[in-house]
Design brief:
D-Amino Acid Oxidase, Chain A, domain 2; eight-stranded mixed sheet; 2 domains; alpha+beta; 19 strands; 26% strand; FAD/NAD(P)-binding domain
Length: 382
């Protein structure tokens, strides 16, 4: 027998879990299908923390982050659990070559009405003596930045979806999607149908959207974060005194977090360029750990103790580093969402609202016009 639903969401990462939560809360009979287990560690939606920020060099993403914020707070209110901690954040450039990057963040925040301060090198040193930066350094401080508890966010959204009547199927890779009215979805376990389908496949997106004759020009990259035990002054790296940061630098930007649940700060490189197949094992690279340690020794020397718990995850990158959220071309009942290019988690609760809106109403007030498929003149077809 084929079990029928109003909507099927394929993929239970942050975007799929958020969509299922909103849909179920809105009264839609929802099925959420996950190829692994809920909150697994094979994709892009797990871990202790993910950066939350309005501070973007693109005002469209700044607006989307602002729209997403109340949806995270509503989820917290519904669950009774704290998921988003606002502690402030720094966008830093320590050399003139990257001043335009930081200035673009300030300009975008000003454009959307965000709060910020511009800091010169002396002001950075006075406020955050943990940093070792040159005299040409400058930074934007955004008081609205912070972090989300990533794994728990996914788990809570699934729990809330189930509370509102959603059905969850774990360990069921989708083997076929048969477009039509309704859409049929086949797994190795069963056959399901729905009036609407949302595909949030992450690194496996092209395996899924080939069933709607679409392929995206994605490249899957392994990213890595590493924790560092402070050598001294550990109290100065607590969240009350050490905000999250993005460091615009050559050859690649870095980012990091204060001490949260583990006894060390967390630091990683953004877009390192180590491309993988999503089915490969997630093996942290010793070379990356050494490079990040060298970075911490140079710029945060008091924190440059023993590295521990190097952890790998995946970026699913588009060439323009933007997302993809839209109806599959030629189908008004199949929505795709993927390729969050390593900076999507913070928008999860808001993008889930956008996906639910597209299914329910065909349009959304969420600021996603810049990530629709029409920005491409052509796409490769399967």
């Amino acid at each position: 027998m084929t079990e029928h639903f109003d909507v099927i969401v394929i993929g239970a990462g942050v975007m799929g879990s958020a969509a299922a939560y909103h849909l179920a809360k809105d009264g839609w009979r929802t099925l959420l299908i996950e190829r692994f287990q809920i909150a697994h560690t094979y994709g892009s939606s797990h871990g202790e923390s993910r950066i939350f920020r309005f501070a973007y060099n693109n005002p469209d993403y700044a607006r989307l982050a602002m729209q997403s914020y109340p949806h995270w707070r509503a989820l917290e209110a519904a669950s009774g659990e704290r998921l988003l901690e606002v502690i402030g954040g720094l966008d830093i450039a320590h050399e003139p070559a990257h001043h335009p990057d930081v200035e673009a963040v300030a300009k975008a925040l000003a454009q959307v009405g965000g709060r910020f301060e511009l800091l010169d090198a002396d002001q950075i040193r006075a406020r955050y003596p943990q940093w070792r930066l040159g005299d040409a350094a400058m930074a934007v401080f955004s008081p609205d930045s912070g972090f989300l508890r990533a794994t728990r966010c996914v788990q809570v959204m699934v729990e809330q979806a189930v509370k509102h009547g959603a059905t969850v199927r774990e360990q069921e890779p989708v083997t076929a999607i048969l477009p039509g009215q309704p859409v049929a979805v086949l797994t190795g376990v069963g056959r399901y149908s729905a009036d609407k389908v949302i595909i949030t496949g992450g690194a496996w997106i092209n395996d899924l959207i080939r069933h709607v004759s679409l392929q995206l020009p994605v490249r899957v990259e392994q990213a890595q974060v590493t924790y560092f035990t402070p050598l001294r002054n550990a109290e100065s790296f607590q969240r009350e005194r050490f905000p999250i940061f993005i460091h615009w630098r050559n050859p690649i930007p870095s980012y990091g977090f204060p001490i949260i649940d583990r006894p060390g700060i967390k630091v990683g490189f953004h877009y390192e360029g180590y491309f993988v197949h999503p089915d490969m094992p997630r093996t942290p690279r010793d070379e990356t750990t050494r490079q990040v340690l060298a970075y911490v020794r140079e710029h945060l020397p008091d924190a440059a103790g023993a590295p521990f718990e190097p952890t790998a995850c995946l970026y699913t990158n588009m060439p323009d580093e933007d997302f993809v959220i839209d109806f599959a071309p030629g189908f008004d009942n199949i929505v795709i969402c993927s390729a969050c290019s390593g900076h999507g988690f913070k928008f999860g609760a808001g993008i889930g609202r956008a996906l639910a809106d597209l299914v329910e109403h065909g349009a959304t007030d969420m600021n996603i016009a810049h990530v629709r498929l029409r920005r491409f003149t052509s796409l490769s077809s399967s």
